[in-house]
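ugh ok fine here u go
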Amino acid sequence: MSRLKELREYVDKKINKIDDVDKRTGAIAHLYGVSLAAQILAKKRGLDPELAAMAGMLHDLHAYKSGSYDDHAHLGAELARKVLDKLGLTTPDETEIICSAIYHHDDKAAVDGPMDELLKDADVIDHCFKDSFKPVKEKEQKRYDALCKELGL
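structure:
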């Protein structure tokens, strides 16, 4: 079984414990959407698509498990480290890359490392392209515009 498939099975089990059907469906759609966007961006940018997809699958897991977005990026990085250590899917260096991306993903104004930036951008893609009738959030507008240019849209 691939590492990504094993991680997705783990995440699915956690998300399927959410009682509210709309919240559960939203969580699945968002985590899989960000994971896919991250994988595509990684291929385009010459980064590891598997690690990018794994970061996407884990990036908001803490928020969905806890029901709170308070400090969810930092707490999510801690949870991701525990999950990856428990499952033994990544090397210590790979775990650092994934956890750094999750730790920084909510600060859309800052510029961080390549995988950190990729996860921020994948999150923006999922937020902004899933419903084209919703206005782009102010904190995501600059990234959205840059992504449209990068992707020729």
